[in-house]
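Case study 2.
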Amino acid sequence: MKLVDLTHPVSSGMQVFPGDPPVAIDPALTIAQNGVEVSDLHFGSHTGTHFDAPCHSIEGGRTTSEVPLDELVGETLVLQVPGLDAGDEIRWHHLATQVQGNVPRIVLLATGWDRHFGTETYLDHPILSRAAAYELWSRGMRVLATDTLNPDRTLQPEEAFSLPVH
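Prediction:
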């Protein structure tokens, strides 16, 4: 089995979703003074590479502690969607040639947008259309992974904030 690592190191001042708490990692204990090294961590629950538990966008949805790990690990269909521009919408026609019938429970959208991590460009990433998300869901997808900040638009007016794929 090939592993796909989507992680970004967590560090003080790292890029976060606009409005989320900033990341601060400070020394709490040191080997020299305390015999052990311990860090004091301050950050939001959606910092860095993470998964959104259903309760993130569904009232009464399962929390992270209620989602068994085996639901998040397993066979994954990696859909390559390179060459997209800032804010482009990934539609079904971008994916259809890579999907034959049903899909595994886990689908990864590989846009290559992670190369922009830490820049303003990273916030204006491609998004997955609601229709394409529905098509993947109807074919068996239950976990969506992406190399972008999220599958929905990050930069959007506060008064029209919407997470249709979430």
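The two ends are 28 Å apart (CA to CA).
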